[in-house]
Structure formats: structure tokens, C-alpha cells
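Anyone up for a design puzzle?
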């Protein structure tokens, strides 16, 4: 999930729509709501956040260092001012990157992946047995051949790969894929997506690489 902060609701809704086309869940906040949320949100909710995008906010309204106190997710500023002084002020405030608007959603996703890779949080891809699972939106490969997947199934596989070695609950998967504030979709949809994903992986691999335990969740295995 990506969190977007901007004073203009139209902007947060616009970005949410664009990210949704890429299969990426979002949550939008006004600056005055965001500070309270990030300081009080549960750790499990914050672990679902892939990055924070900070748009048009009154100077000083958002503290990247406050975000850093709670999570290591990248903080990216979206800037409409093309001046060196403004860009330097943003970096001095503690953001990880400054992106000048307009910018394509895929470039933002690529920058997020690059920042996380440099921080050693994730590689450009994860290999699990004969699977190569990319973290930038590309379909996974099995024995070097692409396995086309619908965007939700692909994102679930990416999330499981990014948590390789750890078991994740259905709620954690749901929050990462649909966002922590999406009340229009039921959590049980995760089971449907994973069932379809397992079938496709089993057909190509000859075995089921997703281990599931009732009440404990899911993890990828060799």
C-alpha cells in the first residue's frame, strides 16, 4: 500500500485511481489528519505501507522524521516547484527522493523499488526455487519463462516474496493489496485470489509453493 498526503482531495483521489490501475492499493490523507494517524497507527498497519508520497502541504505540516520514527518505508516528495532551493529544502526535511510533477505512476513505483533496494530491504527480484519474482510490476518467471498473472495475484506473490521466511496473515495480505481503509472489499477475497494463484503455480511448478496454516497465514516455500 502507498500512502498519499496532499491538501487537495482531488489530487489524492487522482493518484489513487492511477495506482489502482497498476494494482497498487493506496490511502489518501489531508495533512492535518496524517500526523495523528502516523503517530497512532498500529505497527501491523505501518508494515503494510510500501511508501509515503508527500504532495502539496503547508510547510512544516508534515515531518518526514516523524514518519521515520515509526517506519523505514521510503518518503518521496512530489514537487510542483522546479527550483533548486525548494528541492534542497525538501531533502533537508528528511525525504528520500524528490520527484517533479508531472510524473508517470510507473516512474514513482520504480523509484520506490530503487530506494528500498539501496536500503537492502528488498532486491530487484527474489528467487524461490525455479521462480524469479520481480518487485517492479513485471510478471514472475518460472525456469526463465514469464507467467502472466492478473495484477492482484501478482501483487500477492510479490508480497509473499518480500516476506520470504516469514508467515503473513490474511489480514496483512489484504492490507498490503487493498489498503487498510478499504471497507468495500471483504477480507475473504484474499482466499479466492490465493486459490487461483496456487492453481497456476502448481500447474507450472508441479507442486504448491504456498504453505498455509489456519489462523497463522501464508508463506512461500521451495
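Challenge accepted. My sequence:
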Amino acid at each position: 500500500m502507498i500512502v498519499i498526503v496532499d491538501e487537495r482531495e482531488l489530487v489524492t483521489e487522482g493518484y489513487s485511481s492511477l495506482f489502482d490501475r497498476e494494482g497498487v492499493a493506496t490511502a489518501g490523507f489531508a495533512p492535518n489528519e496524517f500526523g495523528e494517524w502516523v503517530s497512532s497507527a498500529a505497527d501491523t498497519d505501518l508494515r503494510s505501507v510500501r511508501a509515503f508520497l508527500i504532495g502539496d502541504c503547508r510547510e512544516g505540516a508534515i515531518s518526514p522524521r516523524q514518519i521515520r520514527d515509526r517506519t523505514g518505508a521510503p518518503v518521496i516528495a512530489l514537487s510542483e516547484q522546479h527550483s533548486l532551493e525548494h528541492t534542497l529544502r525538501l531533502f533537508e526535511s528528511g525525504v528520500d527522493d524528490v520527484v517533479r510533477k508531472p510524473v508517470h505512476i510507473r516512474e514513482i513505483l520504480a523509484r520506490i523499488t530503487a530506494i528500498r533496494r539501496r536500503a537492502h530491504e528488498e532486491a530487484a527480484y527474489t528467487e524461490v526455487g525455479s521462480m524469479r519474482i520481480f518487485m517492479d510490476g513485471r510478471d514472475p518467471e518460472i525456469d526463465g519463462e514469464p507467467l502472466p498473472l492478473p495484477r492482484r495475484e501478482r501483487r500477492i506473490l510479490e508480497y509473499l516474496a518480500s516476506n520470504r521466511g516469514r508467515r503473513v496473515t490474511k489480514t496483512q495480505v489484504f492490507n498490503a493489496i487493498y489498503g487498510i481503509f478499504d471497507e468495500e472489499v471483504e477480507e475473504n477475497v484474499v482466499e479466492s485470489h490465493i486459490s487461483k494463484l496456487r492453481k497456476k503455480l502448481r500447474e507450472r511448478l508441479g507442486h504448491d509453493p504456498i504453505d498455509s496454516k489456519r489462523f497463522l497465514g501464508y508463506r512461500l516455500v521451495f
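A detail worth pointing out: The CA atoms of residues 132 and 141 lie 5 Å apart.
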